[in-house]
Write a structure and sequence with these properties.
33% of the residues lie in helices and 26% in strands. The chain has helices spanning 45-53, 94-105, 110-118, 134-146, 164-179, 214-221, 226-237; strands at residues 5-16, 19-30, 34-38, 60-65, 68-69, 79-82, 152-156, 183-188, 199-204, 207-212. A hairpin with a 2-residue loop joins strand 9 and strand 10 (207-212).
Length: 242
């Protein structure tokens, strides 16, 4: 991992619909890491991710990515973003979708087959996206996010609805990408996926309970698994319900 963080968040505060969603969150994402953003539904994970990508209106604080304000024009070709909802066209084939996005991004046409292979959809390259399963459509969206070899990859619940074998394969891909220098911020509410990350941000009720490696968090809480560690942190912090 690099010495300088890829993402720096300082006292990030977000209100939505009159409710406080992120409460003065401060944390960093190390360059070249697979950083897991873990927490229950409603903890603010998607809002934090949207803030990093630069598409969330914030109430206060700052977010910098690769040394630039989140959402600034120079970052557009440097960040890949996977939303929870599939972001591809149902009436186009897998390859047609990716050729279109490659043209929009100005990436090499050869990238298309490379990212299709990376997400395990080579045998579905000619299939209409509308005829694919939900998990397969998620993989097409992930392939689109991989186009152009972004320096930062932001993935919002990328393994929801996927079978255990595919989840394992995707986490292996995430770690391979990090090994080649890509920084990944991956949200999940599944605690067993946390062990596959090099760093963790544990979020609850819009606050960061811990930001460290899985081993350090277990040591800090004197627990043997991360689910127990998360519960111990909640008990210790005595975070009130909204």
């Amino acid at each position: 991992m690099g010495d300088d963080p890829a993402v720096v968040i300082d006292r990030l505060t977000v209100h939505r619909g009159g409710h406080l969603v992120l409460d003065a969150v401060s944390c960093e994402v190390a360059a070249g890491s697979v950083t897991g953003l873990l927490g229950p539904s409603g903890s603010g994970k998607s809002t934090l991710i949207r803030s990093v990508v630069g598409v969330q209106k914030i109430s206060g604080g700052t977010v910098e990515v690769l040394g630039k304000p989140a959402g600034s024009r120079p970052l557009r070709s440097l960040i890949g973003y996977l939303t929870q909802a599939p972001s591809v066209y149902a009436d186009l084939s897998v390859r047609e979708n990716l050729r279109y996005f490659a043209a929009v991004l100005g990436t090499a046409p050869s990238d298309v087959d490379s990212v299709i292979s990376a997400v395990g959809l080579t045998d579905k390259a000619g299939a209409l996206v509308g005829r694919l399963s939900g998990g397969q459509r998620t993989r097409v969206s992930l392939a689109a996010a991989l186009l152009g070899a972004p320096r930062v990859l932001v993935l919002d619940e990328p393994t929801v609805g996927l079978d255990p074998v595919l989840r394992r394969d995707l986490w292996e891909l995430f770690n391979e990408l990090a090994g080649r220098g890509t920084t990944l911020l991956v949200s999940s509410h599944v605690m067993d996926e946390a062990e596959r990350c090099s760093q963790l941000l544990l979020l609850r009720d819009g606050r960061v309970l811990a930001a460290d490696s899985p081993a350090a968090i277990r040591d800090r809480t004197d627990t043997h698994d991360l689910e127990s560690a998360f519960l111990a942190l909640i008990d210790a912090e005595q975070v009130p319900s909204p």
